[in-house]
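Re: weekly structure request thread

Next one in the queue (97 aa):
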Amino acid sequence: MGSEKTEQLQSGIQELLDKNDPFKFIRSVEPKTLATILKKEHPQTAAVVLSEMPAEKNSEVLGFLDWGIRVTIVNRMSNCDGMSDLAKKRIAEVVCR
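Done, posted below.
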């Protein structure tokens, strides 16, 4: 396979992955801005969003939240593993509005 064809294939694969990742845009939001958005959401919603973030960004966002809500969100994050992909997608869509 030629390098041009390989690049096209890789680009196509990446495009598909991006379409299937509802949290891609949210990951690009600055931590302080994301914290401001999540303060207005239910703690379980915030937990789902933060569970989809890289650890470093997750802790940065948590640092902008009040201690009480931070503890609640961290406790709820442990329950996010069993959540369906469809439910996570819907949460991402709501937060992006």
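The helical segments are 3-19, 24-28, 31-39, 43-51, 55-63, 67-77, 85-96. The radius of gyration is 16 Å.
Next request, please.
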